Amino acid sequence: MILQGSQPRLMSYPKLINGKNVVVFAVGKWTFERDVDRGFLGEALASLLVCPYSALVNGDYLRSQEIALKERLVLELLENLAIGYPELSYRIRIKPSYFMYEVLLNRVRVFPPMAYGMSYFLCGKARKENVECVLSGYMEALKRLEIDGWIKFDDGFVTIAKKFIVRSKNHRVRFTNFSKRAPRALFTSIFSLFPQLLNFFAQNAEALSKFQPFPWRREFDARRFIDPKKYVFVPTAQGPVSLADNVDIAAFAHRILSDGVYSNIKVEDFGGVLNDVYLIRASSGSAEKKILVKRFKDWSGLKWFPLSIWSFGAKGFAVLGTSRLERECAIGEFLACEGFSVPKVLHVSSKERLIFMEFIEGEDLSKGIRRIGEAQNLKKVEKEMAAVTEVGEIYAKVHALNVSLGDTKPENVMVNPEGRVYLLDFEQATRDGDKAWDIAEFLYFSGHYLPLNGEQKAEKIAQAFINGYLKGRGDASVIRDAGLQKYTRVFSIFTLPSVLRVMSKACRKTEARK
Fold first, then answer.
1. Is 12 in a helix, a strand, or coil?
2. What is the distance between the alpha carbons of residues 488 and 501, in angstroms, rounded to a whole number?
3. pLDDT digits (tens, 9 = 90+) for 22-60
4. In the chain, what are the domain boundaries?
5. Are the C-beta atoms of residues 270 and 280 closer than 8 Å to each other?
6. CATH 3.40.50.720 for domain 235-358
7. Buried b (16+ CB within 10 A) or exposed e, 66-90
8. Which terminus of the chain, N or C, has less C-beta within 10 A?
């Protein structure tokens, strides 16, 4: 009951009406609307609008408040996705059911008594009607958000608008949104609303125990609820994959490859220092298919400490396995859609932290740079020098999309037997990152493979890369920044000082081409 002109307080009591046992919650209209707008009562009353309900009178009023509430809740969930998946949020596709189930599950976690009603909602005979009723409010809210430009509809999926993602990452906006939600937490903690409601159930235990069916003593079993992430999808070369997917390597191999074409399937350890890397081989006679699998582990303790010391002051690395998996998938798919040669993402198992990718045959560029260092005549390594120039051009085009790759060692560039250049390893890639680091890491790591008297070769490699970068319309100031001491210091551990000086000088002297 929402009461016009009532005092701003909450009243609750059981009542027998026409032979029916009813629990009545009554609240003033002013208080209720602020609970809808900003969670003034910790959404203790407003949350009832996210469940199926029947209005006895003034149904239009309740419907308007329901849509206003769901619009705010959807915005909060979109913001959580944008913050929790900073790169993948540009690419994920969301079924509207996600918002419904995520909101319900969050409320049950905070206020377990809601679980009893939810069990009937999700498992009862009227489940289909209940879902359609609740979901219709979210659809109305989403249509409003589409008009506002925060989301887009695409073939039944919701995608997050770029301007909303950028806005969500703004620290000032995030603080403002937090402050809007603060009354919810403040009211709950200071006035202990939820404990009061729990006490209400306890104090009326005898009366409520006679209400049938009302299994108020039964404990909540979260396993009965649908995982909301089942409705959030990651794009791959083989179609969208749910974030709730938990397929392991063996299951994927047999699901994808055991189709009558391949009979012999093997999984081999493919090395990897900071991640576990495996190679799936599927063969049938002379035909063979290879799939590369990476399991992203958290970097902690001794694994992370050397990296943090090595790059201190110049570069920060993503440490959590889930974050690196997200970047690998999101940036790889983004670059593939932009026409770059990258391995296809075949499948993602978010819960297992696994990504399944196309295996690229070929030779990584570090071997070509070694041949440049060993060559007596540079004419004999023209193909290798051309590859360095092409990499510079590719990096410029990637940077033009406001993407920095983060880990640009020559080992992460693959040249296939036809001479096509592929970019690999995007687990440190990000938007709005340090582009100068990409250039510095590629050049100074390349210098690591040169001999003691390799200064001339170092200058040739640096100039070939710079020419390619400028040819790709890259920013000359980014190249000049790569020559700064904060970058050369990082790579001085394993690259000769004379080589670093030559390469950094070539960067600092770079002029923009007209």
1. strand
2. 8
3. 888 888 898 889 889 888 777 777 888 888 888 999 999
4. 2-231, 235-358, 363-508
5. no
6. no
7. bbbbbbbbbbbbbbebbeebbbbbb
8. C
